[in-house]
Design goal:
The structure is a homodimer of 318-residue chains. With 318 residues, chain A is α+β, with helices and mostly antiparallel strands. Chain A has a single domain, classed as Glutamine Phosphoribosylpyrophosphate, subunit 1, domain 1 (4-Layer Sandwich). Helix content of chain A is 29%, strand content 27%. Chain A is built from eight helices and 15 strands. In chain A, the strands form two sheets. Chain A has an eight-stranded mixed sheet with strand order 4-3-2-6-5-1-12-13. Chain A has a six-stranded antiparallel sheet with strand order 8-9-10-11-14-15, with helices on one face. In chain A, helix 3 links the parallel strand 3 and strand 4. The first copy, chain A, is globular, with a radius of gyration of 18 Å. Chains A and B meet through strand 3, strand 4, helix 4, strand 7 and helix 6 of A and strand 3, strand 4, helix 4, strand 7 and helix 6 of B. Strand 4 of chain A pairs antiparallel with strand 7 of chain B.
Chain lengths: 318, 318
């Protein structure tokens, strides 16, 4: 029973942009699920889904249309990891149309896990002019950010987790970072154990204020909880509470080896979607306007067991 | 009761170099413990201890004398983290005499956690010519590596964990990476949750084949085990077994909030040392030739409770 679960970032999604997000999620589910249904690997599926979101400049902050740094440049970060512990990750890359595919190339061909800057760019087989990743909208957003002051803001990181017919898990995350970030800044997205994780039991992709996810080791801590058979919904709520206590906010998606789908967020919105099939039956859902909280959709035959937990109050009262 | 625990890398330490390692460990303990004994912070202590090892070109692979990349260049990585979840980290930096102090500057002054390359170097207050970090010995080692072929090798990463009189924990790690690594490669040392970690319960610094520590999220997984009150020695042995199953090897040091000292390694040697005081009594030990395994030295009044666990066999039979 293959499953694909994706996110297109946690944050405030303005009502007039929600249709673009919905269309982007649907296209990414199509792109990732086609191979899964045909018996392809979870690793290929998460790469295909994330690459589709990278190519979508209308909604997501990754690849084309990624947020600009304080210097007005594009710096992309991405990671891909499978349940066998294989990882490829890149950061501060400006010459890749699909950063997630460059991360995949690191996974496939490098003895290393994480490459940054020119050392990562040297592996890109089809380098592009960095200016082609900048869109009129991303430039306009950067001009507005400049006009308002220097506090970095916003995120629409995208990610995917998948389970294939052979029972393998994989996760991928890709981001342009935070609008107005310092050049050279790396967030949680490309860091195994922070924003991206996969092992034999669970695959995870995170989105939100990356510094808080790095400070709390979100993905690896959630994987430890899954290893202990903790209740998934409570374990996710605990991770989000830790992120909040580190002055952050955001969300995450997690897919368990039994096919259970889980996601949680404490931002106003999370763009999420999933698709799975059992025989001739295909189930799917995607939303960009659901309420913050934690949702778990169990494996086949348990799909009514969704649960929702309120998150603890913010320590700062916000 | 302040405690300082340090390491100078896991690997094979040739007999004719052990005196240099011993001298370096003793000097680093002196540099880090003086402030602790005077009531200074754990954060200052780990920075001082690691900076001393960075300045020691005779033994350690960090700062001056760091291992060279495949391109014959120096790229330093470092992180510092305290028990309150504050982190600063830098990677691929060539212009800092003391990379750990640049990481500390990120912690103290940046809204970000991890900065790499020129974006990190821009924060260095006293930039140096990268060539000054290259020693005749590091150049000679690189020439030998070139002559033998392209497989990256070796590590003598250094790190420190400390507990101060106010009960605060901190950790720091610094490395030149792996001899012959690809330019732009980042290992586990500067990654919170992989090679470096501190929270209210435990401070951790790792050393070894960085890719395997990234693949297994070593430090954050150990912190999760400490949070669960797992037996420290078994939890460390489990992490080392995971690293080994990810085709790696290495070691780590961990300091608990109750002052318990722990370290483990499965390489031939680990350079380790610790010093602590209670009233007028100062205890200390450092070794570069002890047997692989896991050692725990409990808090005051329990110092005879050291335990040693054999590690599981290598899956590859090596």
């Amino acid at each position: 029973m293959p499953v694909l679960l994706i996110h297109g970032g946690a944050g405030r999604i303005a009502p007039d942009r929600r249709d673009a997000y919905r269309a982007g999620l649907a296209a990414a589910l199509d792109a990732g699920f086609a191979g899964l249904a045909a018996g392809g690997t979870a690793l290929d599926a998460v790469c295909a889904a994330v690459a589709a979101m990278e190519d979508d400049a209308a909604a997501f902050n990754a690849g084309t249309g990624a947020a600009l740094t304080a210097a007005g440049t594009v710096e992309c970060d991405a990671a891909v990891m499978d349940g066998a512990g294989r990882v490829g990750a890149i950061a501060c890359v400006s010459n890749a149309r699909n950063p997630v595919r460059l991360a995949r190339k690191v996974l496939d061909t490098s003895p290393h896990v994480l490459l940054v800057g020119p050392g990562a760019e040297a592996l890109e087989p089809e380098p592009i002019d960095p200016a082609t990743l900048i869109t009129p909208a991303s430039r306009a957003a950067w001009r507005r950010w400049q006009a308002r002051g220097a506090k970095p803001e916003g995120t629409a990181t995208c990610g995917a987790v998948a389970l294939d017919q052979a029972g393998r898990l994989a996760a991928a995350t890709s981001t342009g970072g935070v609008l107005g970030q310092a050049p050279g800044r790396v967030g949680d997205a490309p860091i195994p154990g922070a924003g991206t994780w996969a092992d034999a039991r669970v695959a995870i992709s995170c989105t939100g204020r990356g510094e808080a996810f790095l400070r709390t080791g979100t993905a690896r801590a959630l994987a430890s909880a899954v290893e202990r058979d903790d209740a998934t919904d409570l374990a996710i709520a605990q991770r989000l509470a830790e992120v909040r206590s580190a002055s952050g906010e955001g969300g995450l998606i997690a897919l368990l080896a039994d096919g259970s789908i889980a996601f949680g967020f404490d931002t106003p919105q999370l763009a999420w979607g999933w698709r799975r099939s059992a025989g001739a039956t295909v189930e799917e859902a995607w939303r960009v306007d659901s309420e913050p909280g934690v949702t778990v959709v169990r494996g086949a035959g348990q799909r009514d067991a969704a649960t929702l937990h309120d998150l603890p109050d913010r320590p700062d009262g916000a």
